[in-house]
Specification:
Order of helices and strands of chain B: EEEHEEHEHHHHEHEHEEHH
Oligomer: heterodimer
Number of strands of chain B: 10
Shape of chain A: globular
Largest interface: A-B, 24 and 32 residues
Strand content of chain A: under 5%
Largest sheet of chain B: 6 strands, mixed
Structural class of chain B: alpha/beta
Order of helices and strands of chain A: HHHHHHHHHHHHH
Distance between the termini of chain A: 42 Å
Strand content of chain B: 25-35%
Number of helices of chain B: 10
Radius of gyration of chain A: 19 Å
Shape of chain B: globular
Chain lengths: 311, 236
């Protein structure tokens, strides 16, 4: 028997498939925004597992996304000619495998960042993850095989609405199911009180690493979707401001509130589009938004129940 | 049951414990009293594995606890009720208790633990689905103790259970501590600022001052000790 949430997951994937079927008749501009929304939902919900539920402040999510994007694009673009015949020339088999590879490499990076970061809390962790994101960006800039600073071109356009929202649905479901399981309550316990969690025999180290690995995995998948959507990726597209953008979605939606974070991801994506005419001033508007929000609604825009720390 | 020998702990350059030695006999309630900053909490946290000692030995049934990770210590049957209650504010009462049984895999044992905790603290059963952050101070303390009991400990360490709780509830909580000790046979190491109450319910007491044990005796004798009376019991 499937649980209710599993029905929701299947329904979401079916809707994504259905919507994708007719995507040729959609306005390309609308399609562009819709796919961006889906990617941002995946990014924000996966970051919410690290930042919101587990309470580890990560500023390096764009780094994980970059790793996934470059890995997946390397599989399809550089090795595509060799690999495609192996799967009978079917791109719908190659693409998810490439995405999966990107997710795995990203989660490995999540493990690498997670382990040394465990000794660090709060601000210090934020700085380390920020440094990680920048290292990834600079590294990619200097690897000529993937285009260096010029970026990687001619990536096949495999992304469509189905893959984008299918992934978003799986991400939402996984994070939701994980956090709402008995095992997953440990994430919230680590966030609520690390010392008490440790004193209860909860292996806080394992939870923090799990959060980083799972979060990074989905960010990597989102990166792969992004690469095969834009068909061109460059290191500067995965900079600090991209990480901040995702953090803003989580804060705006409410830390540890999956539904709120989904709404915020969609809202901010659409907002970004409507703010296009302000160009570079966009980041100023973002910053202002966070300041106003932190003063007026510290629990997040879409959190109504009083679920704040009491002490 | 628990033997602490010449334990020394420091936070960076500041030494919190200068060679503390104490022992707890099975089935007893032992209390550690002393003023602010005496090192009471540090002692408990070191036993739990939350802090690493610079020197000294901690033996639990002859086995050294030094260098063990906190979850290994819990596995051995030691449970810690941390200071300031520290319940998981965003989880419900039920989920908090589940966290206490975190290392327990046997579902029947978990159910039995729930029943036993609810028998001790009926109030927790009434509030089972309530978010812990919305409980009163006394209820949160009950939850913290209940959560520690969920791991089925043989040895329970309690850090200032009277802190910030209404006086009427303090009495109830101390009665429960005695009940847990008597009916479940759990050995208790109690850290308390309320020396009067702590010495009333305990069998043996240690007085800690600036990281050193300065006195130890039967609790009844300590209550009569003029030094303890003037410093901790508010008497002349």
């Amino acid at each position: 028997m499937l649980s209710r949430s599993q029905y929701y997951l299947l329904a979401a994937i079916a809707v994504a498939f259905g919507a994708s079927w007719f995507s040729r008749s959609y306005n390309p501009y609308f399609l562009d925004i819709a796919v961006t929304c889906g990617i941002n939902i995946t990014l924000a919900v996966s970051l919410n597992l690290i930042n919101g539920y587990t309470g580890q402040f990560s500023l390096g999510h764009a780094g994980f996304m970059a790793i996934g994007a470059y890995s997946a694009a390397t599989v399809t673009t550089i090795f595509g000619d060799k690999l495609l015949p192996l799967v009978g020339g079917q791109t719908w088999i190659l693409f998810p495998l490439a995405l999966y590879a990107g997710g795995l490499v990203a989660s490995l990076a999540g493990l690498l960042v997670g382990v040394p970061s465990l000794r660090l809390r709060g601000d210090y962790l934020a700085i380390v993850t920020l440094g990680f994101g920048e290292i990834i960006r600079v590294l990619l800039q200097n690897i000529n095989a993937v285009g260096g600073a010029r970026g990687m071109i001619n990536i096949p356009e495999y992304t469509n609405l189905f893959w984008t929202f299918g992934l978003a649905a799986i991400t939402v479901y996984t994070v939701w199911a994980l956090v709402n399981s008995t095992y997953g309550r440990g994430f919230i316990a680590v966030n609520d009180d690390e010392v008490a969690a440790e004193a209860m025999g909860i292996n806080t180290t394992r939870y923090k690493i799990t959060a980083f690995v799972v979060g990074a995995f989905f960010a990597g998948l989102a990166g792969g979707i992004y690469a095969h959507f834009k068909q061109y990726i460059a290191p500067q597209g995965f900079g600090f401001d991209k990480s901040i953008e995702i953090v803003v979605m989580v804060i705006l939606g409410g830390m540890g509130n999956t539904v709120g974070v989904i709404i915020a991801a969609v809202l901010l994506t659409v907002l970004t589009e409507s703010l296009r005419k302000f160009g570079d001033y966009r980041m100023i508007l973002y910053s202002l938004l966070i300041i106003v929000l932190m003063i007026t609604r510290p629990q997040g825009l879409f959190t109504w129940t009083a679920k704040r720390k009491t002490a | 049951m628990l033997e602490i020998k010449e334990l020394a702990v420091s936070y960076g350059a500041i030494t919190a414990l200068h060679g503390v030695s104490l022992s707890v006999k099975p089935g007893s309630i032992v209390t550690l009293i002393g003023g602010n900053g005496a090192g009471k909490t540090t002692t408990l946290r070191t036993v739990s594995g939350l802090l690493k000692p610079q020197a000294g030995e901690i033996l639990y049934n002859g086995k050294s606890l030094v260098g063990l990770k906190p979850h290994r210590v819990v596995e051995l049957g030691l449970s810690h009720v941390p200071e300031g209650r520290m319940v998981f504010a965003n989880l419900t009462v039920h989920e908090n208790l589940m966290m206490g049984a975190y290392l327990q895999r046997d579902k029947n044992l978990i159910r039995a633990s729930f029943e036993s905790v609810f028998a001790t603290f009926p109030r927790l059963q009434e509030r089972e689905q309530q978010v812990a952050g919305t409980l009163s101070g006394g209820e949160q303390q009950m939850l913290a103790i209940g959560r520690a009991l969920m791991s089925r400990p043989k040895f329970l360490m309690m850090d200032e259970p009277s802190l910030g709780i209404a006086p009427l509830l303090v009495k109830t909580i101390f009665e429960k501590i005695v009940e847990i000790n008597r009916t479940q046979g759990i050995t208790i190491l109690l850290v308390e600022q309320n020396a009067n109450l702590a010495l009333e319910i305990s069998h043996f007491g240690y007085v800690l001052e600036t990281g050193k044990i300065i006195l130890s005796d039967n609790s009844a004798a300590l209550r009569q000790n003029p030094q303890v009376k003037s410093a901790y019991l508010g008497g002349g």
